[in-house]
């Protein structure tokens, strides 16, 4: 069943529900839905329901609530993926697949070793595109939360935000080369539902020595992700899959 996010919060179960703009176009023109069809609606407070289409007009779709849904597809810990700007469309891949795997939010920053550089105009345009990708991926994977996309100006700015999280992990290539296996597992073991985890990934050239010192000063943990060296677009997906096993599959 198709899923749509709306900027509403219902005050009663009888409140009308509206889908407008691009989502209305998708529902009416692309999916060709009509009166009586049902969809999932996710509200601004992350509650969601099954809703039935009442009418489809030129500029909006009117729906009514059928049944509240209670299953929660979100990871029990909020994981933020911070990526040093990679080349090409790799960041789009990270956001799309990372959203499907349960990331809570994403941060993009120009790492010391990033080849790609964004000016102010390009940064906002890129952020908007990434936010759209996150929304579409959240709909496809039946989530109730659309990850937020934040752009920062430097690794220093990222280091300054480390205190907002319960734990910070830096995916570190040298730890993987040394066959280090315990750090990530120990961080996971200390986390409890509702906590926030920031995981930092470098671009193709990795994290610079200066950035390592910045994150060490914030008491970040430096962890390997298994015995193999992963690409910058693969490593976040490995981390999220490991988190899903630890906090969802392994606890059932």
UniProtKB/TrEMBL annotation:
Entry keywords, A to Z: Cytoplasm, Methyltransferase, rRNA processing, S-adenosyl-L-methionine, Transferase
Subcellular location: Cytoplasm
Gene Ontology CC terms, in alphabetical order: cytoplasm
Top-level EC class: transferase
Alphabetical list of Gene3D superfamilies matching this protein: 3.40.1280.10
Keyword flag Transport: no
Domain Ribosomal RNA small subunit methyltransferase E methyltransferase residues, every copy: 74-243
Catalytic activity: uridine(1498) in 16S rRNA + S-adenosyl-L-methionine = N(3)-methyluridine(1498) in 16S rRNA + S-adenosyl-L-homocysteine + H(+)
Family membership noted in the UniProt record: Belongs to the RNA methyltransferase RsmE family.
Primary role: Specifically methylates the N3 position of the uracil ring of uridine 1498 (m3U1498) in 16S rRNA. Acts on the fully assembled 30S ribosomal subunit.
Entry protein name: Ribosomal RNA small subunit methyltransferase E
